[in-house]
Structures are given as C-alpha cells and as structure tokens.
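Lab notes, practical 5.
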Amino acid sequence: MSSSGTTTPDSTHLRNRRVALIMATLGFGVNFWAWALLSPLGPLFVSEGMVSSPALIVAVPVIVGSLGRIPIGALTDRFGGRVMMPLLSIITIVPVLFVGFIGQYTYGTLLVGGFFLGIAGATFSIGVPYVNSWFPPEKRGMATGVYGIGMGGTAISAFVTVPLFKNVGSVAPFVLVAVVLAVYALAAWTMMRNAPTWAPATKSMISQLAHVARIRLTWQACYLYAVAFGGYVAFSVYLPTLLHNWYDVSIGDASLRMAGFVIVAVAMRPLGGILSDRIGATTTLLVGYAVVAVMAIVVIVLHMWQDAPSLIPVGTVGYIGMAAGLGLGSGGVFALIAKRSDPADVGSITGFVGAAGGLGGFVPPLLLGFMWVQRGDYSTGIALLAMATVFAMLVAVWAGQPAAATARPARSAGAPAEETPDSAAEEALS
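Output from the prediction step:
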C-alpha cells in the first residue's frame, strides 16, 4: 500500500487523461476561432463594396477544412495527436497573418487567404481519435462530447472579431489569433502525450482510407454528421446574414445572436455524448433530430403567418431549439463512432465523417444566398433542413442496428459481447 501523498500509477494516468482532454479541447477551440474569422466580417465586406454577397468568402474555409480532415485523420492514426495538434496550430498562423496584413484588402487575395485558413478546420479530426484513445469505451461519449466544446471557438470569433476590427484596427483580430495559436502550440508540445495504449497505424494512408471506406458505419455516420454538424456550421457562418436580411437585425446584433446560437449548440454537444453513454447514441440522435425538425417548422410557420416576423419570442425559441438539437446530434454521432468502431480506425473514420460535416455546412450558405437573391426568402432552405433531419432519424435507427458494428474487430471465442445501451435496447426489441 502506498503511503499518503504518494503518486500512484492510476492517479498519474487519470491526471494525464484530464490534461489530454483539456489540451485537445483548447486546441480545437483555438483553431476553430481562426477558422471562423471571416464569418463575422462578411457583412462588413459587403457594406464596403468588396462583394455583393459574403457567401463564397465564408464558405471557402469551410470546404477546405472539411476535405482536409480526411488526410489529417489518417495522419493522426499514423503520428498521433501529440504531434499533429501543435503542428497544425503552427501552420495555421501563416494564413491568419496573411489575411490580416494582405488578404483582406482585395477580393482575390481574400479568397486565397480563406482557402489556406481552411487548414484550421481540419484540426477537428486530430482530437477525436486522440481523446478516444485515452478513455475506456463507457466514457468515450462523454469525452468526445467534452472535446466538442472546442467548436465554441466560433462563438469567440463572433464576440470579438468585429469589435476588434472596428475599434482597434483591421489587423487586430488576426494578430491576436496568431499569438494565441503560437502560445497554444508551445503548451501542447510540452504537455500533450499519446495514450499508453495508442499504437501508430501500420497501413499506408491510402490503404487505411480504403479500409475505413468499406465500413458501412463510416457512411452512415457521414450523413448523420453532415446534417447535425453541417447544420451548425451553416448557421454559424450564415446566421448573421440571414438575421440581417430576414428580420432586419443590425449587423452587430446579428453577430451577437449568432454567438448565442453557437453557445447553445456547444453546450448541448457534451450533453449529447453523456446521454449517449447512458441511454444510447441512437436514442440521443433521434431526440436531437426531432427537435431540429420541429423547430424548423416553427420558424417556417412564423413567416407564413406574419408579413414582418419578429425574432421575439417565437423566432428566438425556434433558432435556439435548432441549436440545441444540432448540438445533441453532433455529440451523439461521435459517441456512436467511439462505441462501434475499432480504436485503430477512429482517426480515419473521423476524417471522413468530419469532412461530411464540414461539407454539410458548405452547401447551405450558398443555397441560402441564392434563394435570397432570387426570391428574397429563406423558407425553402429551412424546409430542406427539416426534411434532412427526418431522413437522419431513419439513418440513425439503421446505424443503431447490430450489423453496424462490423467496424469492430471480431471477438475471440468465448469472449462476452460488449453491451451498450443501444445494443441492449436492440436485443430487447428483437
């Protein structure tokens, strides 16, 4: 028995686990802050006459960050989060400073800067496998949900980017983010460690990606996340413009309301993971998507009944409700992946799923911008979101079936099956 005050291996592991989760979450948040720098500034670029619509400016970083998650996820399986998170944070500093000092003054250079700024969005697929490797299966929903709080970096951007831009100087928000990235990268390199059970993938990147592409769960989770996180991304980049156009809300007020939307979604994401550990990922997903569908219908009906609809109170309830449902769904998807996939494949699966989520956020801003220019209305776009969530409920039930566990390696003869809340419910219904 160890004497009082003696550090035991278990206490050291628990401390390292907490540090790993905290540092991964901070890295995700800081890089998402950088990734979302252009969204709050979109209406300002329009008012200055640089562009007629900010849709493409805010969408370019989204699609680059989304597609970048596929190779970054595979590289994380190979090199580990301890290397990849600080490395990508350092790389992101370059486009941040480019946009701040050069890119923001002409449309062409802004698109170039936004393209490379998208690299920051790829950090998402680093943290999920890194955190997953530190926690046992029964706590992975909670862990990946807490990690998802990092997407609140978009809320930080919404709160501080425009005030710094207007009151301190146009380069101020970019310099601040670059400094924070540098400090974080140094701290991450010093404090992060790969889990003792983690082992680098032995397959080549192409072989590893081909392997996870053959797993049915990969594509089911891709659609689920494209709706949940894609909806969140779409609102986080386009909601200020939507509120300004549709409800005649000022640019500053719209950015603050978008930040509120983000905060609710971020707060609900860890709850989605925790609920997945307790009642099952499938049930959590069904609840989240149902809330989104109902609240989307509320927003549409409000516009049908009122010529000049107000955000207060019903409209606000509708958008906050959608934020809550999207947050629950985002947390539930990665709880599903964590519980039903081989830990060695989590990074690569996360790459595909994260890409789908980002791409799910790329199309809606362009579609909504087109609808506003052509029809002066967003109702059709909100209706499409409602239909997508209803279909996602069907996919969630499908993904919750035992066959979806083909992502797991076969158990040894005589080994007991790992039971999750989902699998227990499925057995009771069979």
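Observations recorded by the TA: Residues 404-430 have pLDDT under 50 and may be disordered. The chain is about 75% helix and 0% strand.
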